[in-house]
Amino acid sequence: MTFPAAVLSVRNISKSYRASRALDHVSVEVRRGEMIALIGPSGSGKSTLLRAFVGLTRIDPDDGVVEGFDQRLQDKGRPTDKIRDARRRIGFIFQQFNLVGRLSLFTNVALGSLGRIGFWRGLTGQWPEETRRAAMAALFRVGVSDYAGQRANTLSGGQQQRGAIARTLVQQAEVILADEPVASLDPVAARRVMEILRDLNRADGLTVMVTLHQVDYALRYCDRVIALKAGRVAYDGPTAGLGQSTLIDIYGPEFQDAFWEGAPL
Fold it and tell me: 78 by DSSP, 3-state: which?
């Protein structure tokens, strides 16, 4: 059996903050077309790992390596000159949406094209017709095209997060890294965001890696799960193989009582 090539990978990376270590010699490969849930207790290193892929977090200056699209992106704690090109191909979705509140939803989404049309043209709103069409198509795809003209800060959290996803489509990202994209959303909005991400993975073939506190969402929407515990990989495999005993080992004995009833364990 042949497996798709890795589009992103980390080898033996660590990240230390003074006396604590957020990542401890972690090695992970993200293969093209996968939808991966990154789970684990608070402080286990999930966001640190995700941010290391795009250079938002610098790894420790030891033997660790971050690679993407067959290029070395971080080496010995320093981003390489390839990181900018990689960022154009990676859409990063933040927990707090990262939209400019005073700008319209349309403009926020159109900003995804800056890597192609240039900063100053975007700053003055001189959007090419191609960008305008792409932005409206992306907004329609995620179900918020009716709000294109509204200021982003007047929209609900779920609407803003869908706008952030639409921006990655205008960016023409090949990989979406989503850092707790549903943590601040109500259950209905959270499910809608997860359904959109899954549809982009299955229908468009986009590679998606999403950090989640909601284990039930990981089990429902993702095919592979990577679990971190105290900065180390505690599980990496198919969702179907993630059993109750493993989850209790990762989260502690209180997990069984905290986990919602009816979860497919």
Answer: strand
